Amino acid sequence: MDSLNDPYQLSRGVPSVEVFRRLRTQAGLSDKDPEAVALALPNTWHGVVLHHEGEPIGMGRVIGDGGTAFQIVDICVHPAHQGRGLGKHIMAALTEELERRAPATAYVSLIADGPARVLYEKFGFADTASHDSVGMYRVMGASHGAGESGAEPS
Ligand SMILES: CC(C)(COP(=O)(O)OP(=O)(O)OC[C@H]1O[C@@H](n2cnc3c(N)ncnc32)[C@H](O)[C@@H]1OP(=O)(O)O)[C@@H](O)C(=O)NCCC(=O)NCCS
Question: Which range marks the domain in which residue 132 is found?
């Protein structure tokens, strides 16, 4: 991976609750309840925030138990900065940390929304369906059968 050029900087950590919600919604991802976000962010295993001229414009996080299971979440780049290799930088930073610190047996999963799967395939992620398993989800507050109402963006 090429190093990031000015005026972009990638730093480790997580954004504030407000910035987290803004980055997600600007990129077209669903908003999250601020109280839930405040609970979540301190439990991040590894996170990165991408800045452009000091302004946060992207992020990504790894969550998990630190040993057996991890998930890559909240990958996003502001639309004005997409298509410049920044998503690849975010993914590279997260996967480098996983390669450095996670046990070799760790299971790392993610939900790929739309064309983002092309990005994840570049980092070795494969469709679970090709291995006779399928990703499943439930939103806690939703009635049973939440999946019947169609795909819920992550
Ligand atoms: C997905 C996202 C993070 C990619 O960020 P980005 O900075 O635009 O991505 P990059 O420029 O680093 O491109 C990475 C690779 O992904 C692929 N890619 C990215 N966006 C794509 C698109 N819309 N369609 C097809 N391929 C795409 C390209 O193949 C590219 O690799 P290449 O340059 O070697 O061909 C960004 O588009 C985004 O924030 N999207 C909205 C939020 C979202 O969907 N997040 C993912 C949730 S799972």
Answer: 8-149
Report d(CA 121, CA 139) in Å as an integer: 26
Strands (E) across the chain are located at: 8-12, 46-52, 55-64, 69-77, 107-109
pLDDT tier, 77 (very low <50, low <70, confident <90, very high otherwise): very high
pLDDT given at position 145: 57
- Ligand 1 site, residue 27, Cβ cutoff 6 A: yes
pLDDT in tens, 128-142: 987 788 899 999 998
Q: Is the CB of 60 under 6 A from ligand 1?
A: no
Taking the centre of ligand 1 as the mean of its atom positions, its distance from the CA of residue 114, in whole angstroms, is 10
154 located within any domain:
no
> How many structural domains does the chain have?
1
Is the predicted pLDDT of residue 143 greater than 90, yes or no? no
Determine the Cα–Cα distance for residues 109 and 68; give it in Å rounded to an integer: 11
Token code pair at residue 70? 């991890």
Q: How far is the CA of 68 from the centre of ligand 1 (A)?
A: 28
The answer to whether residue 85 sits within a structural domain is yes
